[in-house]
Amino acid sequence: MTDRVVVAGAVYSGGRLLAARRSAPEELAGRWELPGGKLEPGERPEQALVRELREELGVETEPVARIPGEWPLGPGYVLQVWTARLLSGDPRPLEDHDELRWLGPDETDAVDWLDQDRPAVAEAARLLRDG
Ligand code: 523
After folding, report:
1. Hey, which of 52, 74, 87, 121 would disulfide with 37, CB 3.0 to 4.6 Å?
2. Opening angle at CA 102, ends 99 and 108, nearest 5
3. What angle do CA 98, 101, 102 make, to 5 degrees?
4. Quick count: other Cβ atoms within 10 Å of Cβ 70?
5. Ligand 1 pocket, mutate which of 43, 47, 73 (most atoms under 8 A from CB)
6. What ipTM describes this predicted complex?
């Protein structure tokens, strides 16, 4: 069976990358992620990303480019990541997160990222440094 997609955003603004600390479930709480969530039936990944970032953070964003690769999550799910530009709003932890941080190019290792997010974060950090 085809794996279901979880989409996440490497959201940029002002040369910094947004990191979100999960508040649930218990085994992931306290770890940091690129925010996002599961595709709903019939959704394209970019649509799901815009919807999830609106619901979870109260912001409008524009997906820019897929970060190459796909990372296994639990059984039946894979993580895909897009870079995304913040269009409007100031992100707030409305759902699923209890803290947000904007990380500058030298700070992208400063939080305890979920293991499965690390390859995409490394690429997002490289893009932040190299433009
Ligand atoms: N991850 C993950 N990294 C990451 C995201 C956005 C999600 O490892 N950057 C994992 C965490 C969960 C699963 O993917 O095991 C689903 O993410 P979740 O809970 O953020 O998706 P939602 O918000 O769509 O989930 P429901 O509340 O269940 O609808």
Report:
1. 52
2. 105
3. 155
4. 14
5. 73
6. 0.96
> What's the rounded Cα separation, in Å, for the pair 63 and 81?
10
Tell how far the Cα of 110 is from the centroid of ligand 1, in angstroms: 22
For residue 56 the two structure tokens come to: 């979870």
Give the span between the Cα atoms of 62 and 75, in whole angstroms: 29
pLDDT at 53 over 80: yes
Instruction: Using the structure block, give the residue that is written with the tokens 């190299």.
Output: 130
Mean pLDDT, rounded, of the chain: 97
- Helix H, strand E, coil C: the string for the chain is CCCEEEEEEEEEECCEEEEEEECCCCCCCCCEECCEEECCCCCCHHHHHHHHHHHHHCCEEEEEEEEEEEEECCCCEEEEEEEEEEEECCCCCCCCEEEEEEECCCCCCCCCECHHHHHHHHHHHHHHHHC
Q: Which residues contact 118 (CB under 8 A, 6 or more apart)?
A: none
| Å from CA of 66 to ligand 1 middle | 18
